[in-house]
Amino acid sequence: MTGKRGRPSAAEASARDERVVDVVIALLTAEGFEALTFDRVAAEAHVAKRTLYGVFGDREGLVRAAIRRQHPYLADAGDGVADLRSACRAILVQLLADEAVGIHRAIIAAAARHPSLAAEFYDDGPRRAQDFLAAHLPTNAEVSPEILFAALLGEPHRRRLLGLVDTPTSAEIDAQVDDVLRLLGLHAPTHESAGRESSSS
What we know:
There is one protein chain. By secondary structure, the protein is an all-alpha fold. It contains twelve helices and no strands. The protein has a single domain (10-200), classed as Tetracycline Repressor, domain 2 (Orthogonal Bundle), CATH 1.10.357. 70% of the residues lie in helices and 0% in strands. Helix 6 crosses helix 11. It is elongated.
């Protein structure tokens, strides 16, 4: 016979929170923000509602955790992101992926009814991504992080939101990053992109 369980270990708490975020993302992307209730999340994640309230606070807190999962390069303080190109690539890999696109669609659909949710999404997502780019921009850059961020996502992100294209390949992400940085004068063309230019001229 086992005794009453005590406080979960750090590893158990982390696994529980990840399970909750999995459920939050599944509900957001499949059914939208209105389907995101503490009753459903607690039932599907097999977590007590009291624990959910204690850890996440409210529905916006659940969404905030889902948004932050889309920006792992921020959580690890940019480990492995040594230059601007790597920073741009890290952002595109995450924000053009299915999870991030699904969450973005859900927030857009809920924004009119829940403006504070939209504001939190922007602060926890795009604004932090722009700050991350700002930290990697050359000090003499004439391009703002906002313009760089908008140019990076641009049409690829719009088409993803509309469901017109699939998740881009690694090569397509590389091409988008290199094209944007070249057009904004932020680095010299790579050998591959230089070859494309000379062959097309």
